[in-house]
Design brief:
The chain is built from 15 helices and no strands. The protein is mostly helical. The longest helix is centred in the middle third of the chain and has 31 residues.
Length: 409
């Protein structure tokens, strides 16, 4: 694989991976405007975010078998087309219930890009490089939380929140064209992967019964729920509790993304000297310590804007260290059914995220306590799952080279 090919693959796969997060982050500064324009509450607007998370979680389970049966590109074409149609619908809605439904449909479309890109990492790159490739994808992915809310804040201020979905429609269209023209076929269709419910369920069961998968996938998903707690709670926390405007919030969100993105790149350097199995417990320990102090500061009323940003920065940094390593180790035991494995891993992440976002929207939005409690709780629970799950792994598949490098056709 040439450097040019390697770079183009990382760029396209990273952009596909970033589609769903970009769809989440870009409209966050518009929460107050949406609530006012649609004559509803901030909590009801937050349900559009929950609907998106639920759609991604359910959709990934759908696309996993489709990606293994039809190959990677056909389901990807369908998902991107569905995303574009739903985004156009979001531009034209007049009530909050329609927006919730269309956000769900939009998520169903976007998660095809998420599942396909993760599965194609396993298709296109040797296993020993997978953690590094995931880290590079997250570097591209990192453009989303830095750019999306900033662009969204200015677009909302200048043209209204409907314009955000016009931009998202354009992004989906560009990705569809890039997929058609430049993304290689990385996996031959395998009709032996049945699309009937029973074989699909059995396929997922065979994945989830693998001790290495359920240990690292659940650990990663629960830790990642702390990120979703932050995403769900931050618009109200910063714009209602701390009284910052849309533009200031977008810059705060962008700054905090540096912690998450930067730690992913630090992880690439750490992997030169340490194994993923060594990095994960260190990151989880950091999450628990920071989460506990953050929780105490919140319940005792010690938090101000500066302290909140500081705690969030270091908490997200620890998630950024853990995530690429748990993802790589979750998928390492699989090759033939990597699509199903990546779909199940993504569904677990988004399922946890949707649960957290619904819970937070049900509590008092004038306090930092619900968001911080969810973040601290996710850190503790992820650490417990990791410690218990490690005991069940008898034959560990490490992140080492087990397949030949190069494109697979």
């Amino acid at each position: 694989m040439t450097k040019k090919t390697y770079f183009s693959l990382i760029l396209i796969l990273g952009s596909l991976t970033a589609l769903a997060p970009f769809s989440i982050d870009m409209y966050l500064p518009g929460f107050p405007a949406i609530a006012k324009d649609l004559n509803t509450s901030a909590a009801k607007v937050a349900l559009t975010l929950s609907g998106f998370f639920i759609g991604i979680s359910a959709g990934q389970l759908l696309y996993g078998p489709l990606l293994d049966h039809f190959g990677r590109k056909k389901p990807l074409y369908f998902g991107l087309a569905l995303y574009i149609i739903a985004s156009i619908g979001c531009v034209m809605i007049k009530d909050i219930d329609s927006l919730i439904i269309l956000r769900f449909v939009q998520a169903i479309g976007s998660c095809a890009a998420t599942v396909a890109s993760v599965a194609m990492v396993r298709d296109l790159f040797p296993v020993k490089d997978s953690a590094k490739v995931f880290a590079l994808l997250i570097l591209v992915l990192g453009v989303s939380p830095m750019v999306a809310p900033t662009v969204g804040g200015y677009v909302t201020a200048a043209f209204g929140w409907h314009a955000v979905f016009i931009v998202l429609t354009a992004i989906g269209s560009v990705l569809l064209i890039a997929t058609l023209l430049w993304l290689p076929d990385s996996y031959k269709p395998d009709p032996s992967h049945s699309l009937k419910p029973r074989p699909i369920i059995n396929d997922f069961l065979s994945v989830i019964k693998e001790p290495q998968f359920y240990t690292y996938a659940f650990t990663g998903a629960i830790a990642f729920a702390g990120l979703f707690a932050y995403v769900s709670g931050s618009p109200v926390i910063f714009m209602t509790v701390f009284k910052v405007d849309e533009k200031v919030y977008s810059w705060i969100f962008a700054f905090l993304s540096i912690g998450f993105i930067g730690s992913n790149q630090v992880n690439s350097l750490l992997l030169r000297k340490f194994r993923s199995e060594q990095i994960i417990p260190a990151a989880l320990t950091g999450l628990v310590i920071i989460g506990a102090i953050f929780f105490l500061a919140s319940v005792n009323g010690w938090l101000n804007l500066g302290l909140t940003i500081t705690f969030l920065f270091f908490f997200l940094s620890c998630i950024g260290l853990a995530n690429p390593n748990t993802a790589a180790l979750s998928l390492a035991p699989f090759s033939k059914n990597a699509g199903s494995a990546s779909a199940l891993m993504g569904a677990l992440q988004m399922g946890m995220g949707s649960l957290i976002s619904v819970i937070i929207s049900a509590f008092d939005v004038s306090s930092t306590v619900p968001m911080v409690s969810a973040m601290a709780g996710s850190a503790v629970l992820a650490s417990l799952v990791y410690m218990l799950g490690k005991r069940t792994i008898k034959e560990r598949v490490e992140v080492k080279e087990s397949v030949e490098a190069g494109l697979m056709h």
